[in-house]
Amino acid sequence: MSRSSPVTVPVRSIRRFVFLGALLLPAGLPAQGGTLTGQVVAEDGVPIAQARVRIGERTPLVLSATDGRFTVSAVRAGDQLLRVQLLGYVAFVQSVTVIAGQTLDVHITLVAAPIPLKALEVKGQPPLRPVLEAFEHRRARGNGHFLNQAEIARMQPRVFTDVLRRIPGVMLQASSGSFGSNDMVRMTRTIGVNGPRSCPVLFYVNGSPLQISGDMSVDQFVAPEDVVAIEVYSGSSQIPPEFQSSLLNSRCGVIVIWTKVGEDNESPPPAPPAPPPAPAPDV
User: Fold this and answer.
1) Looking at residues 167-193, what average pLDDT do you find?
2) Average pLDDT for residues 65-91, to the nearest whole number?
3) Where do the domains of the chain lie, and which CATH numbers do they carry?
4) 174 has which bridge partners?
5) Closest CA to 249 of 206, 211, 192, 193
């Protein structure tokens, strides 16, 4: 029986085999990395969802779940920069060390960051009184001439007839009466070649007729600063049914005046001062 002889392989051949084996390995085989897990919470410990988690520059972005948990796989080993961001919170940035083949678990607390907003100026207007809503409806029809409180204020009238003299179709006739010189209101269509006819304008104040005698002026009844709206109808064809009055002779024209009636913008009179305390009796 023969004995087997030991086989001697030259060292050079071993090196050649190792080299050939290295060539047979896949060229793109990545190095082994680690795993990063964690949870994102607020300062009060409530989990934060949809937080943007990124580690390093090449690792894909992940979002935290409803319980705040997240997992990032195949993280390159070594020191990496961890970033966690969410609108309304201060960005979390911290360096972490990832070990190949191991899982690193982190706990991240995001601090709320107030978002500065520009100051907003809100302007509003009080709701219209029902009578002024009806005024706006009649104004929309286009029959007659209409002025609201802002338009009257821009005129800066001294007396009420200063407003009327600026309305087309209205004429003021000087007249002397028991209270001195007055401006009588007429419509131009009642002025003929022989002068004004005895056909005075009918006034309504807050929906009620105001009968003014011939020697008095409307200025003695109405102050311009109290008026919030005016409607002027120069002929019977323009006058709405609610202001038609055959008994009060509205055919020569109607002027409807709406005034302030207990509005909130009228300040109450100041309270009288309290009386001084009575002196203490002598003991």
Assistant:
1) 71
2) 93
3) 34-109 (2.60.40.10), 130-259 (2.170.130.10)
4) 183
5) 211
> Whole-angstrom Cα distance, residue 49 to residue 41?
9
Radius of gyration, CA atoms only, the chain:
47
**pLDDT tens string 185-202:** 888 765 555 555 556 788
Q: Residue 220 and residue 210: Cα distance in Å, rounded?
A: 12
CA 44 to chain centre: 32
Buried b (16+ CB within 10 A) or exposed e, 194-223: eebeeebbbbbbeeeeeebeeeebbbeebe
Question: Using CA atoms, how far apart are residues 269 and 271, in angstroms rounded to an integer?
Answer: 6
Give residue 126's pLDDT: 66
pTM as predicted = 0.47
Query: Among candidates 208, 236, 234, which has minimal Cα distance to 145?
Result: 234
User: Which region, left, alpha or beta, applies to residue 76 given φ > 0 means left and ψ of -120 to 50 means alpha?
Assistant: beta
